[in-house]
Amino acid sequence: DSGVTQTPKHLITATGQRVTLRCSPRSGDLSVYWYQQSLDQGLQFLIQYYNGEERAKGNILERFSAQQFPDLHSELNLSSLELGDSALYFCASSAWDSGADTQYFGPGTRLTVL
Amino acid sequence: EDKVVQSPLSLVVHEGDTVTLNCSYEVTNFRSLLWYKQEKKAPTFLFMLTSSGIEKKSGRLSSILDKKELFSILNITATQTGDSAVYLCAFSSGTYKYIFGTGTRLKVLA
Q1: B97, B99, B100, B102: which to substitute to probe chain A, counting the most A Cβ within 10 Å?
Q2: pLDDT averaged over consecutive 10-residue blocks of chain B (110 residues)?
Q3: Chain A residues touching residue B43 (CB < 8 angstroms)
Q4: Which of A12, A22, A16 is nearest to A72 (CA)?
Q5: Residue B37 to residue B41: CA distance in whole angstroms
Q6: Which of A33, A43, A110 to mutate to probe the B interface, most B CBs <10 Å?
């Protein structure tokens, strides 16, 4: 158990819909990262937040957005969902923002878009 | 463009064998290289490497980084069936991005 929690565990929805994935980092960690893992793409970095501020963006679509709240939990919002958005979405956290911090991954949210 | 390449893509060995997994990278502003083990769930952290030539060890696993030649290796000795997993290599760059390789799938047969 990494100490990172994600909800929900599974999510099934239809194309065109909007969903919100939630992540609570390990106690004391200030950075939160979001990743998408699909069968054909591997693990893709989406976005990072540090202490409430966006720090880095990876391959995140414009239909996706995220935020980190004052209590440090984070939410990833996915809108206008397409079949290709079906994937496992991981959240990870680390203590700081040095780029040399160990990231601890949550159990993931499996999103299925029908 | 920053990228990381892992080899081999897949590996099947017998229990007791020693395996070496490779990770080569190209990055404009290297900060660290990380190894993860992923079974059916989330990746779990193995090692973080920031300096060349310093071996990190944890039980039967060890890893080393060569920043001149831009690669890292992960060694697993006396493999066990529980080592069967996908091993992911990743690095962080100066822009705080984390780039992951596609992984090496290791299967250890009893």
Answers
A1: B97
A2: 90 97 89 90 89 89 92 96 96 78 95
A3: 43, 90, 105
A4: A22
A5: 10
A6: A43
